[in-house]
Amino acid sequence: MPVPATQGEQGYTDREGQAMGDREERFSEAFRAHYGELTRFVARRAPSRIVDDVVADTFATAWRRFDPEPTHVRPWLFAIAYNVMRTQLRGLGRWESLQIRMDAEPPLPPSDLADEVALRTDVVEAFGRLRAADQEVLSLAVWEELETAEAAQVLGCSSRAYLVRLHRARRRLSTMLAATTRRADVQGARS
Amino acid sequence: MNDSPVLQALAATDPARDVVADPDSLPARALLARTVAQPVPEPRPVPRRRPAAVAAAGAAAVALVFVGVAVLGPSGTVAYATWEATPVAATASALATAETQCAPAAAEGGTERVLEQRGSYVLAVYADDGRIAQCLTGSDVPTAGTATTGALPAPAGPDDVVVYDAGAQAWGAGDGEVVSVVGAVGDAVTEVSIENEAGLVVEATVQDGWFTAWWPGTSPADSITVVTDSTVVTVPAEQTTME
Fold this sequence. Notes:
The complex is a heterodimer of chains A (191) and B (243). Chain A is mainly α. Helix content of chain A is 68%, strand content 0%. Chain B has a domain of 145 residues. The longest helix of chain B is centred in the first third of the chain and has 11 residues. The interface between A and B is large, with 60 and 48 residues.
């Protein structure tokens, strides 16, 4: 004999209320697990003044779409954040693609070797000369440290396509780095 | 991934290295409370990307001897609104439409070699004995076709690729202009992707030793990446053969 549904304070039946409670609990777990990563993901790409808004809108969207049995939550959140950032930047009248930010003065390596310092300086310049698409692929691998399938999910492409794009981006970074190093050598010889 | 000195150096430039984001902080807990207080809409299925078709192929050049364009359909609409960089298997209705509207191209090119769908658009490639014809159909663009003639050498080996139409120029009509790449691949090639000069990366469809890809606009192909189980090789689009 079916159990009659009863109404709770929010207008939900008991069973609906239980489901909502489970959903909220699962979402809260996901929030706590990924809040830091998501904030840093956005901070790497969006102007600092909109980071908090983007994070809030991302979680709001995620809450509306949340699957109580989630899988691959991290890349899913990152993909939502991408769309939120694009939308907000369009709203600000900025139609250009999202720009990866970089720390132009990274901390010195512990060994403080001149070669390592020079390499970091050259890498900053070479990375800055890459196209936005290449910067994005590299950043997902290096800074977010996403697995191939995760990065592909964020970018909305196949794992194979992501690997191809990563391969190209690494090749272009090497090319830019070689050009940067050569230019530095020439300037050093002139000084 | 970060096993090379270059990537290790890049990792050290993380702009968010010092960003503090504690989920147990007061602002974070307030955000969570505000978020879960929002009403939840009726559940709906999350759209999933359809699996990519295949990809493949290589490099360059058969003389473009003839280009003919036939505008058969309506115009004045936004062209290629549903185009996607990743192809899908063609639907039955799209196949039927292409079969009907591409009859002239089939007569020009011969045997159907590869056919792919992107959004609501289908590109069919017909080829025989040194002649190729391409036909593009879709719901909001004119049906257009282009034909290429010239020698069609086969790939030299299983990892090899030959490009018959390297996407050097656009074809189509008015706002409906597109660029396409067509070629043949060896048996070991599993995927091909093309990047145009505007930076757009397009996955190709690989089918029965042929490959093709196309994109809206006039930006020519810049490079072609060919994937086998053991290699990933990128070559300039104008290159005619691959090692």
